[in-house]
Design brief:
Layout (H helix, E strand, L loop, with lengths): L13 H19 L7 H17 L4 H5 L4 H21 L3 H7 L3 H10 L2 H14 L3 H9 L1 H23 L10 H13 L3 H8 L11 H5 L3 H29 L14 H30 L1
Helix pairs in contact: 1-2, 2-4, 4-9, 4-13, 7-9, 8-9, 10-13, 11-13
Amino acid sequence: MIATFSWTAPQFHLGSLLVVLALAAWYLEATRSGAVPASKRQRWSFFSALAMVLIATSWPVADLAHSTSLAALVVQRLLLVLGAAPLLMLGLPDALAARLTRPAPIDWLVIRLARPGIAIITTTALLAVTGVPGTVAWSCQNPWVAALMSLAMLIAGFVLFQPILDKVPGLPKMSPLGKVGYLVAQSVAPTFLSFAWIIANRALYSSFTDQRRVLHISPLADQQAAGYIAKLGTFSVLWTIAYIKFSKMPNDETAEQSELRWIDVERSLDRAERRGQFVKQTETKQGEAEKE
């Protein structure tokens, strides 16, 4: 285990603090330029997300999550997936989001992960792999694995919310009704592990110990609490967003068409140019092969 948890001996997580400070400094420098100014609302969103990241990866949440309590691990996951990830995305001005996703490998990846079906599968896979007993036990033994799990949770959140927030330019946008259906599906599929936590008649995670001493509950009760927290937390956030999307759905179908932005056109031209270069290179290689 990383450490035995104690309420009387707080642990200082220097790495988490340095990462958050580095991201804050980068954001201030990136948005200081006149080309990518950030509004007050965007700054509030970004720094609120950094605060959530710091809470999720610091004492006591992180220490409980990787030594003592499955329920604490679920709280950590909810903070990162449903809190920090969307707020980080909302905090990025469109021009800055476009710049971050412009490199060809990143753009190629987000094009595929932004498809609703692929997004659901990817989110479900990430939450499942990082939530099974073997991976959790590994994270309890190795702090680097615990850090990678936190990063995977942020990535899962980015993938989950991209079809809703449309931060990557030049991608097809879902209709409001499509977003409602997508959110409902995302609230169900990625939380299937919580069913096992609730209905199991024994504790499944031997890596968690001292629940009785630290939290005054049994391991099984902690596991069941984790299941209910996962379900209620996910449903309450995603269904609330779905309700807001549904309530704001325009009556006129033509009103659902989003306004075309220049950054969308620019990204589409970039992709077309890359496809043209790829076809040209392929034809050149075929011609050389035929000559040989």
